[in-house]
Structure formats: structure tokens, C-alpha cells
Hints:
Mean pLDDT: 82
CATH architecture of the largest domain: 2-Layer Sandwich
Distance between the termini: 75 Å
Largest sheet: 5 strands, antiparallel
Structural class: alpha+beta
CATH class of the largest domain: Alpha Beta
Number of helices: 10
Strand order of the largest sheet: 2-1-5-4-3
Helix content: 40-55%
Radius of gyration: 27 Å
CATH topology of the largest domain: Heat Shock Protein 90
Amino acid sequence: MSSKKISQKKLEKEELFDLIVQNFPVGLVILDANEIILEFNPAAERITGFKKEEVIGKNYREVMPGLPCQLKNVRKQIVEQKDKIFVHLEGTITHKDGHEIPVRYTAAPLVKGSELKGAIAIFRDVTKEKQLEQHRRVLISMFAHDLKGPLAIASGLLLRLRQGKAGNLNEKQIQYLDTIIREIGKVDKYIRSFLDIVRMEAGQISLSKELCDMHSLISELLTDIELKAKQKNITIKMEIPEDLPLVYVDKEQLQRVFFNLLDNAIKYSPDNSLIVISCKDIGESILCIVEDSGPGIAEEDLPYIFDPFYRANYSESVEGTGIGLAIVKTIIEAHGGRVWVKNKMPPEHGAIFSFTIPKAGSEKITTKPSSAKRNR
């Protein structure tokens, strides 16, 4: 190819790059290796209030300190030949006039070979989404809360009827009342669980953290859940190292996580099968895994399995509302961990639910370890 054609191709690429930058629908910032702003597109101008000419040549921390583009640690990662770092987070940036703007952003280093060339970040304003989300939470919370009153009254009157306060009942009437009272109890439980989700998401439920030993924490829970497992002759096996570090968690809420995961596993596992609970130290966190022997989860359902009220197609024959896994996700994230699910590799069947919990740090904690004595 002639030098003229090469120059033409280069010019076309530069024009295409400029066109993409100018029309990119979200904010775009490109930095050099010294964290100096090289590019700032129109969408970034609209979101931040800064003009391109005001920020080009400045360190991004002067303009957008909220963005996670620090390159100091990235150089170390490159030297150690670790994977490239991609950050997907929510945060805030400060508008030129001083007010805070909630944004969702993605940032990544720009690397050529083993050399760090800079970084790129894209971000978008989520103010309207946050407002709608808050309105949704308030409305749902009000709706669920208002349902509790009529349910309590109805339940109380039904119990009085069941106790014969309004006259003697025949066997069929008692049977009907027992069924109604049981079903109202389920509805009340669902409402309370959903209110918990709304409150946790809004940060209205504080975690009462204490030092806990995972082995003892799970062992206490198994006393109750194994009774349900025995109805299907399901064995629950624990694989937890004796020297596993302690965690600093809300014991009751973490036991709730395990209960929901195990309850879910028992529901979907066939009779005479095995459920395995395992924990292991993975550095800064403890990885906890619950493996069942059920049908697994369809690929199209995997991205939504932790959404409130979402129920996979295969779950129609199993009683539930889809709230349990949403509660699991909310509690784990409130602890600073994350949760995910995948299927076992064929020919095995079943789902593998995993989550991380940060280990107890080096900070001074006066609370004594909960159930420090292991149950062996």
C-alpha cells in the first residue's frame, strides 16, 4: 500500500474516532499515564457543567475526583502480569456549580503490551433513575405496610373463631379455618420479607455485627433445616476448615442467608440426594458455597434469579414467591460481599450458589467471638 493511501486511511480513522467521541451518548473521559485529561466529550460536558477547553490538560482529580481512575495500583498489576482491571460502580461526581450528581461508571486502564498508556472512563447521570427508585421504594413500603393492618385484624378474628369464641364448630369448619389461618400466615411472612428488602436497600436496617465462627454459625442453623431435609431423605454435608478465619457479620442475618439458600436447595433437590455447604479463605474474603442436586437453572433465568418476585419457569410446581434469593443478595451486599450462581458442569446436575463475606479486619473489635467453640 502506498504512503498516500496509508495517510488517507489514518485520516479516515482519526475522523471516525472524533465522530464517535462527539456522538457517544454517555460521558467519555480519556487520560494519559499521568492521569491528565486528553479527551472530554460533549456528553461529559453536559453532565459535569465543565467545557472541554476548561479540563483538557488538567489532572482528572481536579475536575472529577469521584471517578476511580487511579493508575498507581494499575502499574503494579501490570508488572505482576495480573488481569486488566475493569471497574463497574455507582458513585457521585461534583458538578461545576457544586452539587453532587449520582452516576454509574465503567473505568479501565489502556495498556499496550506491558506498558500503561492511560485510562478510559465512561459514565452517565442516573439522577432520574435514583429518584424513580426512591419513589418506588416508598410506594411499595407504604403498600406493604398498609396490608399488615387488615391482615392482623383478619387473622385475630379467625383465631377467635377457631377457638370457639363465636360458638361451636364442626370438623369441616375447623379444617377450613385452619387452612385460611395458615395461608394468611404465609402472606404475612411474604409481606415482612419484602419490607425487609425495601428497608435494606434504603439503608434503613442496620447490621448488628459481631465476630463469628462460620462452622458454629452454620451448625446452629442445621439443627432446624435438617428436619426439613429428612422429609426427602436429603443429606446436608459441611466442608469447613477448622482454621477458617473469623468473620465480622450480623449473625442472625447471615444465618438467614444460609437458611434461604438451603431451603431453596431442599425444595429443588430430588429425594435421597446430597447438598454440600463449603467455606474457604480466599484472601480478604471468605467464599461460601451451597451446592444442590436439583435441575439447575436455565441460562435465560440466571441473570434475574436474585430479582424480587422472579421465579424461573421450572419452579411453578414448587411453593414460593421469589423473595428468598432477593433477600440473600440484599444481606450479602449490605455486608460488602457479592453473590452469584452457576450450574454444575454436565453430566452433573444442580446449581451452585456462591457468595463472599469480608473477613474480620485488623481493626480493634471488642465484641467476643460468637459461638467461638466449634461443634465437631
